[in-house]
Amino acid sequence: MDYTTLNRTLSVVRSLIIWWGRLFNPKIIFNMKTNDSNVMEFISEIATQLTELNFHEDTFVPTPVGLLQEVKFTEEAQDFFNERYDEVETLFTNLILNPKEDGKQ
C-alpha cells in the first residue's frame, strides 16, 4: 500500500470515528455499555484491517502450537499494526472521548 492509499484509508477511519461520535453521546455509551476491552477490541480491529489491506497475503505467518496451528503477524506487519493502533487510539481519544468544543481543547 502506498502512502496516498494509506492516507485515504486513515481518512476514512477518522470519518467513521467522527460519525460514530456524532451519532451517539460517547459519555453515555462509555458509562453504560462500554468498557476498556470493548474500546481496545474496536481499535485493534481497525488496525488489523489496515494491516491486512497493506500486506495482503504477507500479513500472517503460521505458528504451530501442539496439534493446532495458529497465525501471528509477520514482523513487518506487527510493526505496522503497532503504528496504526497508536494512530487510531489517538484519533479515538481526541475525537470521541475528549472532543474539542467550540475550537477549544
Write a structural description:
- This protein has one domain (3-97).
- It has a two-stranded antiparallel sheet with strand order 1-2.
- 68% of the residues lie in helices and 11% in strands.
- By secondary structure, it is mainly α.
- It is built from 4 helices and 2 strands, in the order αααββα.
- The longest helix is centred in the C-terminal third of the chain and has 23 residues, at 75-97.
Briefly characterize the structure.
With 105 residues, the chain is mostly helical.
Give the secondary structure arrangement, pairings included.
Blueprint: H1 3-23, H2 26-32, H3 36-55, E1 60-65, E2 68-73, H4 75-97
Antiparallel strand pairs: 1-2
Query: How much strand content do the residues show?
Result: 5-15%
Strand order of the largest sheet: 1-2
Number of domains: 1
How many β-strand stretches? Answer: 2
Low-confidence stretches: none
Radius of gyration: 16 Å
Descriptive keywords:
105 residues, mainly alpha, two-stranded antiparallel ribbon, 2 strands, globular
